[in-house]
């Protein structure tokens, strides 16, 4: 029962954790009102001979807390652009606030007609907490000008009940001013929680968009290279083939020469395409290490790279395949973990080049994703082409470690 929430928390990403933190901060504002009202009702039970007000206040406090929690939830969903029924719960919360405040204030004198004994003004405290419980969700879901109007309007709607209950005009005016100031502060605090939550999700969406743009840019580069290489040659092949057809129909011997030229251009195009693909598929070890550090630092992950003096002396095919290991491992760190530190180390061991990659922030319960595992399988295939192997040894809890070894 205890490990369930902990595992779910570890499986959340940073935006989800931030939203959960701020959401429960708003919920805590609603729960704070409950002990205040309970203390006030306890004072009512001690001060008055009748417990009618205490009982009514207790019921209103519990109902207000539950309605306010629902209003906070739907209001935050609306602020984040999700479907919600926030209007319904705002109306219910406002009606409960006004009706409850009037009830508590008008029942201030005991039901048997005896005047209120000296003691803490518990009815005013309960009315203020009910007003504050409505102001929070209003500040989250409505525009600020409407939220400020609600902050001023609710205390004014409660003030007639105070005058009818026998509270002096001066005390009523002071209570209204204090309630307005308190609700304005509460609106600003709750609004800031919602704003920070939205900013966190926007930053996460921006990072995903940046990744997609990088992939799209690489595709455009590759298509542009293919177009530059193949466009002119294919056009020449088409023209010369058409010319050869016309010459062949006329029985001209030049048709054979044109077809020989077409063959030469086709072979040259084939070679150029191989060069383009080879350049696209070749990963430079130093460039990939530097790129991995830049990408990880941009994601707030400290990256330690130790290639030593071994990288320069490695054969080019070995450097290329190890560069692909770094590229894929960096992708896995960003996609499948919440790492704060990453280590990339290269060493020579028993006639082999061994690349070690280690990162922390691995969730205890991995979140499955479509196509999971294809990256490591692809790396094993690349390494197998060079008689190498990829192993995932046991690491400390929350840590992922992978070793790529290629014989020299």
Automatic annotation (TrEMBL):
Transmembrane segments: 21-40, 52-69, 90-109, 121-140, 147-167, 173-201
Signal transduction histidine kinase subgroup 3 dimerisation and phosphoacceptor domain sequence ranges: 218-285
Name the UniProt record assigns to this protein: Sensor histidine kinase
Keyword Transmembrane helix tagged: yes
InterPro entries for the chain: HATPase_C_sf, Sensor_HK_TwoCompSys, Sig_transdc_His_kin_sub3_dim/P
Superkingdom of the source species: Bacteria
Alphabetically ordered keywords of this record: Kinase, Membrane, Transferase, Transmembrane, Transmembrane helix, Two-component regulatory system
CDD domains to which the protein is assigned, alphabetical: HATPase_UhpB-NarQ-NarX-like (cd16917)
Molecular functions (GO terms): kinase activity
